[in-house]
Amino acid sequence: MMRLLALALTLCAFAPPAVADDFDRPPVRYRDTAPDDAVAGLGRELRAGTVALAHEKNGGYLRAVLKHLDVPVSSQVLVFSKTSLQRSLIGPKTPRAIYFNDDVAVAFCRHGDALEIVADDPNLGAVFYTLDQDPAGRAAVTRQTDRCLSCHAGSATQGFPGTLARSVSADPTGEMLLARGTKRVDASTPFADRWGGWYVTGTSGTQTHLGNAVVTPAGVPSRDGTNVTDLRPDFNAGKYLSPHSDLVALMVLEHQGEAHNRLTRANYLTRVALAEEADINAALGLPAGARADSIARRIVWACEPVVEALLFADEAPLTGVVAGTSGFAAEFAARGPFDARGRGLRQFDLKTRMFRTPLSYVVYSRHYDGLPPEAKAQVERRLWEVLTGKDRTKPFAHLSAADRLAALEIYRATKPGLPGYWGK
User: Fold this and answer.
1) Mean predicted lDDT score pLDDT of the chain
2) How far apart are CA 216 and CA 211, in angstroms?
3) DSSP β-bridge partners for residue 166
4) CA-to-CA distance for 169 and 213, rounded, in angstroms?
5) For the chain, what are the domain ranges?
6) Which tens digits make up the pLDDT trace of 254-298?
7) Would you say 176 and 170 are in contact if contact means Cβ atoms under 8 Å apart?
């Protein structure tokens, strides 16, 4: 308990926890807790024999897994830097493909032994799996609690299980030139710093980025990779489910990953604070649920980064129109939900910012709804304060009165179970 207490107290300064395996201790018990996510459900169905996955020559079980998990092919993005466990199979001629929906991401390497899958569990956050690609065997999902966490529960994710997107300098073989540094990418990253080591299909006008180019040891990019719409000269795109690595899909994936990471941290740290509160109350003979100011502050501090991510605080502005190539944007926006005026949080702007209404669709996720009640109440109270204009502080100064009203109305109309003060 004392180590968990030390972990929770670090949040006061938004510093990473001292050790990355504290989440294996009570109350979280990451490795010992059975997940409740879509991939765990697929694993149970495969073991029971109620689902059979078709195996294909080029993609193995990939297409069948995407269909079962409702992951659109249009979401495909391609990374050619050697930044995963199957690094020996990855390079500019054989990029790694990633497909995703709101809750699941599936990674495929050509000639790989396994699909790599991460699911956002409402209680545990990011949970990592592999699915063996051997056609002679029976398809099975295996939870990975060690290998994946070496990268996905370190300093880059503040010591909690999470996902990360990086922009790197990659040489002609896909090896990272570490001396040139790497950059974590989310919605706040300037456009010009994104997508080193990635293929990118789409147009962005005069806005440059680092995609589609390899870098010489002297640091010279092989080309200007901006405004590329055809990857066939770079590799055999016919070996993939799609010839695209959609620019808009990349932007969405980066925002979504950071939002889910912050939900995980808020979930864990709130639970740690509440567990400590229960111990203190029991030791002092106080009523269960008696709330000290210090515990209340820690819940506030745990949740505020979530609020900022959901409202796109510090989002890097666009200076011109951007567009993808795969049809992802239209497919994503069509998923809704919509209010009576046909407005939804998935509709894009792509001229000055990512979304038309700057409140994230992540509020519809099971991960968001899985926050401890104390954390969920704090986040929803803060969203209401910002969207009603009661909070006009600097992190939310980018929100116009029209932005706030639209987000308030759409959320109120499309999110069931809101507290009564939201009104109808």
Assistant:
1) 90
2) 15
3) 184
4) 9
5) 30-248, 258-422
6) 999 999 999 999 999 999 999 999 999 999 999 988 898 999 999
7) yes
